[in-house]
């Protein structure tokens, strides 16, 4: 295995990015290669380098790159002149997706949701969700949580915690209160109690909320995983105070934490769910907002969008649902592999007094230092492993391998990670500690 | 030619939409068929019906459905395991797109813009544009126009004029002032003068704007086409008052009005441009925000989004740019065909005292009545022609045929339209007028 | 008559203002004297200077300073240990005021209003008015006008046009649209038509308003006087679109324009009226919000304030209502004197090609230049006449003499004004014009 | 002593309130008498009843009603035709007030503040304070606290916690975050820590604040008294995070808690202080915003108001400062009497398992039930004692006697209170508890 890319030089054709692409680009800075093709867990750059992908498009490629079954379904569809773009018209591809989602996902779980095809980005699904909650309740305030991440358009951005992202708004972000997530004040403080107290107090200044918007695991916020007990409390609090419970399952859903939904078997049912990222299965833009039928209260076209009928995504999503979710095998395997990952990360972390974070195949190591974590991930990239950080200070090294990775390859990637952590700790950081 | 679809009956499998798709769906209501495949200007339903498409995904399919060259480029790319999803990493497909956009679009027009790959929806491109304008100017208020349409997420929705769409927000939409568009108060009143007077008056209550956001032709707002003189005035006013000029070219761009940009040869250069819809050429989700290099001021990742690197769209967009825009032939042909369309619509309109609206291949007839326009478009659909309405009261019948349509087929569609208008006017409306 | 004050020197005790009073002070800068006592139309400074008051506390002293009847009523009340402060408890003084207001003001005019004792400032009365309109209609947007002035607290400030005042907010001012006032676009354009068109258009982007808030004469905005026809149109438009009509009569009411209310005999009845300034008759803080009984919908205490029961003001207000408004004599006299003022100002203005502005005893000369107007008013002050400017550029010299001034003394003041205008025009401005 | 008022009957002249006063009136409902005169600690109704005042205009009458010295100073001033209203012109009365405030209050305490004469209501002082903090810092968000009360105009109302008051706004109240006050989550949780953690976390979603606005004792919010330690922490947190510390001393200042300012001897110095209520000493409308000289950054007139120069209030305020604050005797006496009050209330409360609240002469008993507290205060009123409740559920009986009350009379009032509590507990509540 030669994952090491060729040494980079001053390759002139890269100047096109400097010349024409906005400086807002980010991942391309820490991974300064140009990629051409990818299959499964591997990405290939234009200089012959091969990379093991522990980022998976931030959980957008849970089934790996260009999965053969999905790819073939899409090739067949395009070759047959299947509808690519159809606004929100009924199409064969949409029908197949709806049926499959009903048969494979909803019915077996005893869930009853309506599907809203929003514009095909997560932020759009979140915007639709909070608009709907405000419309249904007649209230304006939404409760979101510390370290939450929900998107970049103005409504979703107001729900996002990160100050740098928020600062980009250019206007004050309002109608949202950010409350402490599970464990935010340490294990002694039950933040659900704090929230309940304030919502129950007519003089707290916290207005009655339209919705409580929560991630079960905070992907961007540092892989904080809420406990089932806390989530149930939040669900109860929402109900008690007349608010809708919105679970943003964009990153944690589609199997990343084990089940198709991240909240399965936890004993509560959200009023609204947002999905995107791995929904299409192949990385194609696709987003959904699900809600209980009684909240299906938008007028026709009240929320619309040109690309809300991305039929290519319907095709690959249908293939993915059928292949991976028709029975429980995939889910069992992901959970088993998640435990494996957990065991390995815990061992690494313990060596340096670090903590692990996360749930299922969405786990990481909190190094406590953004500088250290950045040093490690940069060294990993040089060694052929694509891996990123997360958290308020980028201090958490985040393992988001494709769920379909085999155990051996997962081990290879973790070996690279372990080695780079050890090297980083041995050199500067260890020295600094003396 | 038998465009007439099979008579519809109570086909049970349609219940999936009732059962599972949100009531927010809209086009599917006025065009109650299920579509399977499409090529060029034709769409096919599941019952054997064939439809001539005068809607083109609201100008998303300017080159028709599944154009053979674009389709082949995409098939080849997928077959070779080309990167589908790459966050904002450099990829071969992105490089090719950037180079092509520079060579084919920017350089020949003497334009210098940076490209920001926003989330692949128009509303996201608009959100990025107004965030940037607010950041650059340090101001908060944006001026948009009556009947403008810019998207459904909270920041873009605040810029949208339509009351029904705005009502969906559930919170007050702020930081935007809606000013009268060109001709809004009739031909006697120069609305640019009105705007200039208020911006020049320190006691007008109109705060200094971060941006003026304008469509050159209002696609959803009734096909109102601003005059070049008015647009130049608006550009001058923006400059004089320290605001950035944003042209929302999502619907009017990509050749719809003749040139690649809708403002070409008008004598002004926008500070920011938003693009989406036909950008990918094949209906795939893709959006761009362009800005002058001096305004490239976002920090890395300050505005991001999972699907900002839709490489399938890069591939088809590149193929479309190369095929249609490498020389001026396509543009000349579109303009010629636009004149043809204009002549025909003017003749039809004149017969009933109606007015025409629009520019290039983005034209329509203002019937003055949403009920009448709806009757006509429904009858057209029954006759195998997909066509929609626009405007504050849905009173404008809107012709958005693919730009690649041949003259004969355009004529066939217009024949259908003309006949249905005549029938509608002969029956109830004529009767009512007696 | 020796109105000329003693020449000022470096009097050390003035340093207390530099040392302790905020730089936000304003009038004290253009009138750098210290005043001790005042009676009727005269103010006296600490250096023996006497000043004729053509400012009247910006129309707060319509009955002059320390009117003997009001003063005696207040002295008697205080001497008898009358309640000074009673929150909103019933008091003898409040009862007397309510009865008098009913008998002297409401009943003779056939008006039926409820009185709300807000905090005793105009801005508080405006805040209560717009809160109530929003509560009653369930809408959020308020329409105010260019050059309108309604106060400095956040809700009222959002309705104020002046950019320098607005800039002090430190947050975006929202939920208000500023529309052009009568005559704003010149005599050819009926701005009521423009407003009606936009409110009638569901795609204009102008949300349905809770209220239209208007001054009949814009005191701070340059003495623009709306025509009765335009005001009736605005009243009709408010009604047609489900908005409440709020007349802010804080400066123009209490006789300043002739009648007790500035809109009398114009053929419409506001839904809400705000009053303050001359209401107490002696310059004591007092404000009222009046509304039709059907809009009396605040819950007990929903809007409150410590000083909403300023009983001293009730006492002087009652005395003023009884003395000046029990019959029509005062009103007739004010109108006659207003005509006198108009004739004189018109003559002066005509000489220099200036225009006059205003109505009743609220009139001025638009010099077209803030610098010129400031030169004139400064020279007037040196000559013993207190007079100020108004308008977006402070270009209007504003005559707000006490309504009780006798014709001769009014003439004395206008002589001073005329002379200073002539001097200013003869010297620099005339020279500059050569 | 016959405090018992005459039995009330259906006195017809009260109908004027029903007919003409807005239903927003509140105190007049629970104290259905009409008052005529008052002196010291006593109020007299129109039916011969005499009431001991334990409300003091919500701490507006700290020196009692119509204090002879203040009353005489005002009578002399009015009799001599002293300026009543002078906008913000320099006057003898203002100069005397400024000098006295400097000599008696600032210099002895080593404090250096500029005084801004805002409109004469507490809410106006708060609006000016938060406008200034936003202007100085360039930030928009203000941190206020649970159960805080700061006024009814839109900017101050956003800082107020009470849901019923907030609901009156009719628009969402934004740019303010409400954080838990000292002790809000019980004695175990240090809410200053919670605040510091969130402000220190760039992903908490809590934007960097312009100001932290705090009452040292929450008068309307239930007499919660913050500890000096907590207040010092808040002051440190404000400083560390670049926010200005605003102490709203409108109710707790002017001697109510012992010192002239409520934060004296606590080891921190606010950046901005708001004052009103007892400032004039006689219940006349008067408010001040104080700030450190370096924050004196408003432009001339940037915040103004017609009644910002209430000279009558300057006169009585000057007399009050000289008489009560020239030496420490008054302060010593108030503290002693506060201890007396505390001892007595503690004894009463202990008997029923209630808790006491507050500090200095601003104390009360938390009965835990708004119904019980209301029953007691109503019974007190019938017995000739004016006393009110406070807190989110009106559950705290609040003793706000004039500070000048003699010990014996204080005892008389407390006897009434004690008896009514015992009666209430003996009857229904005790019965209910069986």
Automatic annotation (TrEMBL), chains A, B, C, D:
Q: What is this protein called?
A: Diaminobutyrate--2-oxoglutarate transaminase
Q: Which Gene3D superfamilies match?
A: Aspartate Aminotransferase, domain 1, Type I PLP-dependent aspartate aminotransferase-like (Major domain)
Q: Which gene holds the coding sequence for this protein?
A: ectB
The GO annotation for biological process reads: ectoine biosynthetic process
What pathway is this protein said to act in by its record? Amine and polyamine biosynthesis; ectoine biosynthesis; L-ectoine from L-aspartate 4-semialdehyde: step 1/3
* Homology family: Belongs to the class-III pyridoxal-phosphate-dependent aminotransferase family.
A GO MF term? diaminobutyrate-pyruvate transaminase activity
The reply on keyword Transferase is: yes
Give the organism the record lists.
Sphingopyxis fribergensis
Give the CDD domains listed for this entry: OAT_like
